[in-house]
């Protein structure tokens, strides 16, 4: 099928859709970008959708592996969020990182595509990832400058305070659950000035936990998720090392039976 409009999504696990699990879909995930594409296609069948994002990718990998590939698809719209995995490393030079990002955004805009960027999430309430809050704040200010300089649209993920609620997050506490991806998709479509039919589900009531129960829960999470995550980084490996993009060329993505 020939598409007259093409949306291409670039990035890491956030854009690939990790946390919004569905074994019937490529790479086993759906995600906010899929949901945005579905709404664009519902409104105009001429849209095609490609998603080149791969979990675990650092910013230089996203730029090296995905930007030229996206431009080759002659996109109408590109979304990109990169740098989150760099911010979580022990050391990172945010200024150098953003110089590379700036060049990539300029290149994408020069292709004629509209570009959608994101600020980073406010992890201030996280006992583990909250230590990177200052880095993310600096990253965000530079992202805003890049977006302004190149006329890119900006989704302000930092200001989505509703997502501070743990019920929007997957059990690994690093990726959004389906409700979080749905909420984010609605915000993206709002920035794009598009209507949507996404119905974010009611959140289950938070269970009351004693301090001892919370400590046991945190210890289990550290064993099952934090430890393996740290181990992969120490070994220089990623959960996305053996994955390929789930939609490498524009398609109408398969929509699961569930909403």
From TrEMBL:
Molecular function in Gene Ontology: hydrolase activity
Protein name, entry field: SGNH/GDSL hydrolase family protein
Source organism: Arthrobacter sunyaminii
Domain (SGNH hydrolase-type esterase) ranges: 9-181
The organism's place on the tree of life at top rank: Bacteria
Keywords linked to the UniProt accession: Hydrolase
InterPro entries listed in its UniProt record: GDSL_Rv0518-like, SGNH_hydro, SGNH_hydro_sf
